[in-house]
């Protein structure tokens, strides 16, 4: 099946806002009387704000009301937005700009598939909002990764079949979502971690579009 569309996770693939998430979550945890480490923050990658909050509260041994959870999530997001609002195109990860030049030349369809509700803001700040034909973010989905909803909606908006798509992901949950959706997956990170991916590279700087096209020969269920 020919490859017609590329779907990208945002955080860790196009930009890296993990440090901003960590700083905001740590500030929230500190306000509640405990701390979290960067290592702990790794398990929050690729999952929703609500799920992240539940994990952090459990880590701190706290039980709070639903109203309090909502207030905490809102406060965390405000702190996070303070940080990302200062982002510039300099935040784009190595290799992304050159890779997208090749993507445009090949006339491939593109979409963002991110659980973040701030995806559009980030893309605007880094000057890449017009590089995507569709943006599926946390405002358009009801289920987070590893549920494939975000990528299936992306394929639908691009008017392509799932087996005509390649997903680029840095998180285990995201790779699993792609595979559950019947799509090919390129992992950005370590092969020992992203074991379900069809191909793993350290960054888009280490990947050519020709290598992506070779994935069309990979057998899918």
Cα end-to-end separation = 13 Å
CATH architecture of the largest domain: 3-Layer(aba) Sandwich
At the fourth level of CATH, the homologous superfamily of the largest domain is HAD superfamily/HAD-like
What's the CATH topology label of the largest domain? Rossmann fold
The counted number of beta strands is 6
**Sequence of strands across the biggest β-sheet:** 3-2-1-4-5-6
Strand content: 5-15%
Report the C-alpha radius of gyration, rounded. 17 Å
Which CATH class of the largest domain is shown?
Alpha Beta
Number of helices: 9
* Average pLDDT level: 95
The secondary-structure class comes to: alpha/beta
SSE string, helix = H, strand = E? EHHHHHEHEHEHEEH
Helix fraction bin: 40-55%
Overall 3D form: globular
| Biggest sheet record | 6 strands, parallel
Give the uncertain stretches in residue-range form: none
Could you say how many structural domains there are in total? 2
Quickly describe the structure.
The protein has 221 residues and is of the alpha/beta class.
What can you see in these coordinates?
The chain is an alpha/beta fold and 221 residues long. The chain has helices spanning 18-31, 38-41, 49-59, 66-84, 96-105, 119-126, 149-158, 172-180, 209-213, and strands spanning 5-8, 109-113, 134-136, 165-169, 184-188, 199-201. It folds into two domains: 5-16 and 90-217, Rossmann fold (3-Layer(aba) Sandwich); 18-84, Putative phosphatase, domain 2 (DNA polymerase, domain 1). It is 41% helix and 11% strand. The chain has a six-stranded parallel β-sheet, with helices on one face. α6 (119-126) links the parallel β2 (109-113) and β3 (134-136). The radius of gyration is 17 Å and the shape is globular.
């Amino acid at each position: 099946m020919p490859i017609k569309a590329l779907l990208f996770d945002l955080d860790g693939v196009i930009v890296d806002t993990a440090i901003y998430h960590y700083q905001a979550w740590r500030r929230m945890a500190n306000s509640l009387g405990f701390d979290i480490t960067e290592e702990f923050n790794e398990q929050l990658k690729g999952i929703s704000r609500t799920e992240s909050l539940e994990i952090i509260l459990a880590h701190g041994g706290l039980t709070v009301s639903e109203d309090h959870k909502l207030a905490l999530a809102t406060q965390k997001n405000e702190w996070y937005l303070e940080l990302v609002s200062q982002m510039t195109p300099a935040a784009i990860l190595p290799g992304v700009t050159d890779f997208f030049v090749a993507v445009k030349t090949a006339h491939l369809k593109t979409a963002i598939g991110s659980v973040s509700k701030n995806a559009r803001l980030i893309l605007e700040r880094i000057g890449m909002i017009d590089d995507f034909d569709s943006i599926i973010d946390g405002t358009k989905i009801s289920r987070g990764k590893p549920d494939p909803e975000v990528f299936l909606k992306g394929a639908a908006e691009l008017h392509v079949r799932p087996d005509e798509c390649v997903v680029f992901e840095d998180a285990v949950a995201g790779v699993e979502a792609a595979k559950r959706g019947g799509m090919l997956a390129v992992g950005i990170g370590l092969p020992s971690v992203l074991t379900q991916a069809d191909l793993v590279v350290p960054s888009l700087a280490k990947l050519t579009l020709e290598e992506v096209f070779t994935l069309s020969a990979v057998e899918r269920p």
